[in-house]
Amino acid sequence: MVEASWIESEVLKAVPNAVVEVIDLHGSGDHFHVRVICEDFEGVRPLQRQKQVLAVMKQHIPHPIHALDLKCMTPKQAETAGDTAFDPHGGGQGVHIKRIMRNKE
């Protein structure tokens, strides 16, 4: 079982200047919604942003991570993005769920 804080530290290896939000979608430690917000993504295509993160994360898929909903965006995009996360296994076909904001202290 993986903790959200571990996912965050792994993503920061790929994108050190990012703000990383992680939600354990099922409480099972293997299905995660990860939002990566970084100014360095400006001018970078969405797939290239994800590849940057997946370069670090792919060694952990499919074990211990089974599903990763990865959203990589600039701060400006994050301001206008919706407040939902996609659960790739929700209801058998996938479902959008309300994203819960995590308060950092």
Secondary structure: elements and pairs:
Blueprint: H1 4-14, E1 19-24, E2 31-37, H2 46-57, E3 67-73, H3 75-80, E4 84-87, E5 95-98
Parallel strand pairs: 2-3
Antiparallel strand pairs: 1-2, 4-5
Helix pairs in contact: 1-2
Written description of the protein model:
- With 105 residues, the protein is α+β, with helices and mostly antiparallel strands.
- It has one domain (4-98): GMP Synthetase, Chain A, domain 3 (2-Layer Sandwich), CATH 3.30.300.90.
- The chain is built from 3 helices and 5 strands.
- It has helices at residues 4-14, 46-57, 75-80, and strands at residues 19-24, 31-37, 67-73, 84-87, 95-98.
- A 3-stranded mixed sheet has the order 1-2-3. It has a two-stranded antiparallel ribbon with strand order 4-5.
- Strand 1 (19-24) and strand 2 form a beta hairpin.
- The model is unreliable at 100-105 (pLDDT under 50).
Task: Identify low-pLDDT runs.
Answer: 100-105
**How many strand units?**
5
- Mean pLDDT across the residues is 85
The largest pleated sheet is described as: 3 strands, mixed
The fourth-level CATH homologous superfamily is: BolA-like
CATH A-level architecture: 2-Layer Sandwich
In spatial order, strands of the major sheet run: 1-2-3
Number of helices: 3
Helical residue percent band: 25-40%
* Inertia-based shape: globular
In terms of DSSP E residues, the strand content is 25-35%
Give the class from helix and strand content and strand pairing: alpha+beta
CATH class: Alpha Beta
Number of structural domains? 1
The span between the termini is 24 Å
Radius of gyration: 13 Å
